[in-house]
Amino acid sequence: MIQPTKLMRGLILAFAFLGVAPLAGANLPVVGVQAVAAQEQLVSSVLFEGNRRFSDAQLQAMVDVATTGIYTPQRANADAESIRQAYVRDGFNGVSVSPRVEAAEAGRVRVTFVVNEGDRAGIAAINFTGNNSISAGNLKGAIRTKESGILSWLFRDDSYDEQKLAIDRELIRLYYSNRGFPDVQVTSVAEFDASRNAYFINFTVNEGERYSFGNVGIETSIPGLNADVLRSAIQTSQGSNYSISNLQDSVQDMAFEATAQGYAFADVRPRLERDIANRTFNVTYLVDEGARIYVERINVTGNEKTRDFVVRRELGFAEGDPFNRSMVNRAREEIMDLGFFSAVDISTQPGSAPDQVVINIALTEQSTGEYGATVGYSTSDGVLGELSLTERNFLGRGQYLRAAIGASENGQTFDFSFTEPHFMGLDIATGVDVYHRIVNETTRNFYGYQATGGQLRVGVPLTSSLSVTGFGGLERKVIDDTDTFDDDDNDATPEVPDPRASAFVDDGDEVWKYFVGYTLTYNGVDDRRNPTSGLLATFTQQYVGWDFNLLKTEARARYYMPLIEDSGIIASVRGQAGVIHALGDDGVHPLEAFYPGSQLVRGFQSRGMGPRLLTSGEPVGTTMYAGISAEIEFPVPVLPETYGLSGAVWADAGWIGDAADSFGLPIDPASENEPLRTSVGASIIWDSPFGPLRGDFAHVLSESDTDRTQVFQLTMQNSL
Fold first, then answer.
1. Contact indicator for 514, 453 with CB cutoff of 8 Å
2. Inter-residue contact 480 to 450 (CB < 8 Å)
3. How far is residue 127 CA from its own chain's centroid?
4. Cα torsion angle, 693, 699, 705, 710, sign
5. Contact status, residue 668 vs residue 596, Cβ threshold 8 Å
6. What secondary structure does DSSP assign to 310-342, as a single string?
7. Rounded CA gap, 481 and 37, in Å?
8. How does strand 356-365 pair with strand 294-301?
9. Fewer Cβ atoms within 10 Å of its own Cβ: the N or the C terminal residue of the chain?
């Protein structure tokens, strides 16, 4: 691969030499060569001054003086220009670089490149003309170049680069092509404003007519192939907007289904017929027997850290298997989805025979380790912090490892997690989680505890959208519940009885439990991180034994749909429910009961709703709950997309069922006089570098008399 920096360096150096030594035939070729040779000196060291954007090591790789160890004025000037060009590509248009030469020992020289970076040029504004059907905000989100904002110093995505601008034009074209505009044309112009040291970028869009899919059919010449099974893989439904991505995905998925039926050489091609009058494309998928070509060899390069088998197990085929281009394209997506590589390039070349092909996979690795030190605030836990170490490609084997230590005003947490995504090379994920949690006894709760436990996990995909995870674990919990407390901070006076001592546990109680269960997960959303359409659902059952004898069942689901097409306005409906069955003669102990709060209905504190004891007000918990929420999320129109801010309005409703076992103590009727809790509110959502955060402002509409409410809460954004 040609490096632009080295190419520019070579051209500049060549012109510099031509200026000193004329071409052959100009009467002075020997003198010119001698003049250059006389100026060559050995280099003792290469130094850099004034560089902040690039490290010394990065600049060392750009200069030939450091590589060859030989100095000439021409070579030094060429290296200075190489450094300058690197700065310009990163937005430093006013940069200047000059070499300084000093005598060193033994007749050598010390070369210092003095860099005056100047101010970095940004992107003042990105404007669009002709985008009548798609908003500028959506188009800004589709391109790589971003406007300068408060976080530009962190992401450094607001620099002008002509190559990146060419990619942006193609991204805009693809964005339109996936939304019904097959004939879109995009041009761009960049203007530099020296007074602001920033660029104004203008995209001009010629949308063309909007098309949708018409009749969709399948024609196959392969005897025995079940076309009805292939039809379920088609994503180009009649009446939907024309989308080149849906066409490509349909071809890949149909080829995969044909392979699953035993037709590995099946070749799927879409035939499109344009109906200009109705602005539709009629699509016929032609499924025929392709050429019988086999994979002779698979070469994997660029994976300096990642083991070969981690890449190969994502392919779905191996040496000697039939070659299917759709399967190759699918394999590229699977490798990219690992998150280990910034680029995956798959190419083919003829093999040793006409029916053989060699597949070359060129990879560019990216960092998979993260060291985190975060400080935040939670309305339930106060100020909190966490130190964490995460490695998504542990030892290059594709394994996931995370260790974290957290602390808050209410306690501390210690967590360790390890996942092997392909146990013994199979499509089975196994893992282990170990934790130790300390919850302090405070004025907010009736008791504290120390819990130590762990679990084993085994996950198996059932279909492309449905998976099941089995789990089993053990936990030991020691209760901290002092009966007295120092009410005057005076050691000389005796402590007084604690009115908030728990009625259900005693100080020093040791509670053991084991649990075993499963979770079914259906993931039908288009994007797990930022879903805009589809259904996400989970169903969990677990048996809790040892000191308990319970069966817990919980279900959660959320459905997303775009409210206004291409506007960024997304509507969603979320439902959740849970029930606990006591399998023995004893009831449901409050330690294992549900304690609904803001996760069910926003506007309520943690453990802020549900049955309470009449005497002390201690929460008892419930054995049943159900809730439903409706939300509309929308972009904030006055803010740049790069800020990652969006807004939402919502309404919640939750029902609380029977109380857990109260040990014969009376339940406060005022805590159950309103079984249905409701609230409405608005939220600000920030897609921060540490994860999506949301602040919810709530107004409670209905509550029980003893419920505890809150106007604002700050939490992490969760789909379920």
1. no
2. yes
3. 28
4. positive
5. no
6. HHHTTTS--TTSBP-HHHHHHHHHHHHHTSSEE
7. 86
8. parallel
9. N
In whole angstroms, what is the distance from residue 571 CA to residue 651 CA? Answer: 12
Q: Hey, what amino acid is at 584?
A: G
Q: Which residue has the tokens 């070659």?
A: 323
Q: What pLDDT is recorded for position 499? A: 63
Whole-angstrom distance, CA of residue 188 vs CA of residue 27: 49
> What are the tens digits of pLDDT across the range 571-617?
999 999 999 999 988 889 999 999 998 999 999 988 899 999 998 89
DSSP 381-416: TEEEEEEEEEEEEETTTTEEEEEEEEEETTEEEEEE
**Rounded to the nearest 5°, which phi and psi values hold at 565?**
-60, 135
Model confidence pLDDT, tens digit, residues 308-347: 999 999 998 899 999 988 889 889 989 998 989 999 999 9
Compute CA distances 686 → 339, 363, 574, 612, 717, whole Å: 23, 33, 20, 36, 9
pLDDT tens, position by position, 670-706: 999 998 999 999 999 988 766 788 899 999 999 999 9
Spell out the alpha helix ranges (H) of 90-161: 136-142, 152-155
CB 126 within 8 A of CB 203: yes
Handedness of CA 302, 307, 309, 310 (dihedral sign): negative
**Residues present in the chain in total:** 720
Q: Give the H or E element holding residue 378.
A: strand 369-378
Q: CA–CA separation, 528 vs 154, rounded Å?
A: 24
> Could you identify the residue written with the tokens 């360096």?
9
Residue 340's closest CA among 298, 303, 389? 303
* Residue 621 near residue 631, CB atoms below 8 Å: no
The 3-state secondary structure of 280-306, one letter per residue? EEEEEEEEEECCCCEEEEEEEECCCCC
